[in-house]
């Protein structure tokens, strides 16, 4: 009997915040396996901010915006049928299959076996020892290059999957770490992780004053997950030859109105001789295993903690996705099937 598959299809372009009616769940039957193929059943699915733009950065036809295609994304899946000698039934894999319940793979492209590690659940391969963890590791250590102990690191969206890891790695490297997040609950969480100072950016009377208070010696390293006006507020407070990693710009993804100009950014970068770099973590993919080896050690040693916000059920994919932009999650968002 043919295997049925459910998938989320993008029917309309997102304008402003994504809407449920922009997407549709469809059902289709998958063809029989051919030699060399495996049949996958999703166990955990990831939602990440980049999905707001789908595959648009990898397409020449940018105007199409992936209309009619399934939403992209990574999942932990179980092999439920195999005609590939490299994979056995019940093997777990990390697969770039998108928002689908079942998929067929040739076992080569966009798929990796999930290493067996009894101390960490498979879902961590979507989070702390997956793409978000690698982003934190290489974004801080390779892009920002901490120079000496005691330097000040400022992280925004600090209670998210990337930001919380960045701050903890900064502490491991001897930095003074200051985090900004969007709720009092998140501030409490950041302090439990060892952040030296943490603020709810929504309730501080002045973002600039909070930064000056918590960074009396200025900001040496700024790990920016937010962009927008936050970016413009921090730059004047950077120290000479400070380093900035532009990881994300979630404040701008769903914005319709233009950004306010809070400072002459180009002049500040020049005058302060700042090293400002945007980066895509796939450029380091060949080195991920080295990073994960160190991060697993830190986790087991108690120096690196993580949290997952779990939604249950394939029908909850959109709700999980929107929680990214509503700021309700702490840590990595996972959808469990």
Automatic annotation (TrEMBL):
Domain of life: Eukaryota
EC number(s) given by UniProt: 1.3.1.48, 1.3.1.74
GO cellular component: cytoplasm
InterPro entries named among the record's database cross-references: ADH-like_C, ADH_N_2, ER, GroES-like_sf, MDR_fam, NAD(P)-bd_dom_sf, PTGR1
Keyword annotations of the record: Acetylation, Cytoplasm, Fatty acid metabolism, Hydroxylation, Lipid metabolism, NADP, Oxidoreductase, Phosphoprotein, Prostaglandin metabolism
Subunit composition and interactions: Monomer or homodimer.
Alphabetized PANTHER family for the sequence: PROSTAGLANDIN REDUCTASE (PTHR43205), PROSTAGLANDIN REDUCTASE 1 (PTHR43205:SF7)
Protein name (database record): Prostaglandin reductase 1
Protein's organism: Amphimedon queenslandica
Higher taxonomy: Eukaryota, Metazoa, Porifera, Demospongiae, Heteroscleromorpha
